[in-house]
Amino acid sequence: MNFLSGEQLQIGPLTIPVLAALLIGAAIAAGMGLFFLLRRDKSQRRLFFDTLSTGIVIIFAGWKLFPLFSSFHELITHPLTLLYTPGGSRGIMFGTGIGVLYIILVILTGKGKESRRLIRPFLVFSGIFIILGSIFFGLSLVSGKSIENKRAVSFLATTVEGTDISLENLRGKTVILNFWATWCPPCRAELPTLISFAENLPGTSTVLIGIDAVSSEKSLADVKRFMNKNSIIYPVIPDTGGRIAAEYGVTSLPTSVVISPEGNILEKHIGVVNYFWLRSHLSTSVRPR
Predict the structure, then answer these.
(1) Spacing of C-alpha 113 from chain mean position
(2) Is 273 helix (H, G, I), strand (E, B) or coil?
(3) What's the whole-number average pLDDT of the chain?
(4) What's the confidence (pLDDT) of residue 163?
(5) 32 near 103, Cβ under 8 Å?
(6) CA 227, chain centre distance (Å)
(7) Which domains can be identified in the chain, with CATH numbers?
(8) What is the rounded CA–CA span in Å between residue 152 and residue 23?
(9) C-alpha distances in angstroms, 61 versus 66, 86, 188, 251?
(10) Helical residues (DSSP H) of 110-181, grouped into ranges
(11) Closest C-alpha to 8, from 228, 190, 267, 269
């Protein structure tokens, strides 16, 4: 994987966009710069980093908890799902807004002149972060390998239920392929969101298809029992020998691939998907509520 591309990093149960990791690197570099500039004023340095660290925790919490706004019922019903579900770009904006608001309130409402003295360090920190963040963002755009408009590899396969599915016959519809396995904890975590999304697909021009890594399962019968137990209503194709996964370059689970109505790959998402991401790929004005 090209580290400057727009792919995802899997860190334990967390899936983090590479660009977000680069921005975290920019924030660390900016923090090191401020640490050097404030080396002679230990009290101001301590106050700055105490405030900054709390703000970062708030940003992370806001990002991680944001899916509650879009998939509240699914996450409350299946709390473990929240551990794996990412907040997405909206979550990053939400968390950043709350974190920045916290820092501003500390500066404006703090007692004495000490809090006022935080204005200059935070302006310097913001300036360094914006410059480095812009450079990293530019590098990610220049060096990232776009998969946009690449032709999706066609296939003819039989679902677990015995129905034949041809990707070629689905031209004119947006197709979301979700690569998963029953033994994969993040895959289990995103199931409630996928099922809820699939329940609202009738009447739209979007199709959701599960691609199960059946070669890693105990048996196809176990996959069928798992589907029945969890009320999976969208079609699932057993990927015997990992043929389809290999064609789409899938090396980790879960991974979702979006194919346009023209048959081109629009996006490849590694890790758990959230409801906002799924909704953004509906190819019709009829959207689930």
Answers:
(1) 41
(2) coil
(3) 81
(4) 92
(5) no
(6) 24
(7) 8-143 (no CATH), 150-279 (3.40.30.10)
(8) 32
(9) 8, 11, 23, 29
(10) 112-116, 119-143
(11) 269
**What is residue 2's predicted lDDT score, i.e. its pLDDT?**
37
The amino acid that residue 45 corresponds to is R
- Coil, strand, or helix at residue 98? helix
Task: Choose the most confident range, by mean pLDDT, from 53-67, 112-126, 173-187.
Answer: 173-187
Indicate the pTM of the whole model.
0.66
DSSP E strands, 136-182: 150-151, 156-158, 164-166, 174-180
Mean pLDDT of 5-24: 59
Using 50, 70 and 90 to split pLDDT, how confident is the model at 212? very high
3-state helix, strand, coil in the chain (%, to 5): 55, 15, 30
Q: Measured over all CA atoms, what is the biggest interatomic distance in the chain, rounded to whole angstroms?
A: 73
- Residue 1: per-residue pLDDT: 36
pLDDT, one tens digit per residue, over 120-179 is 888 888 888 888 878 877 766 555 445 555 889 899 999 999 999 999 999 999 999 999
Tokens of 21: 């990791």
Burial of 255 (0-12, 13-18, 19+ CB in 10 A): buried
Buried b (16+ CB within 10 A) or exposed e, 122-137: bebbeebbeebbeebe
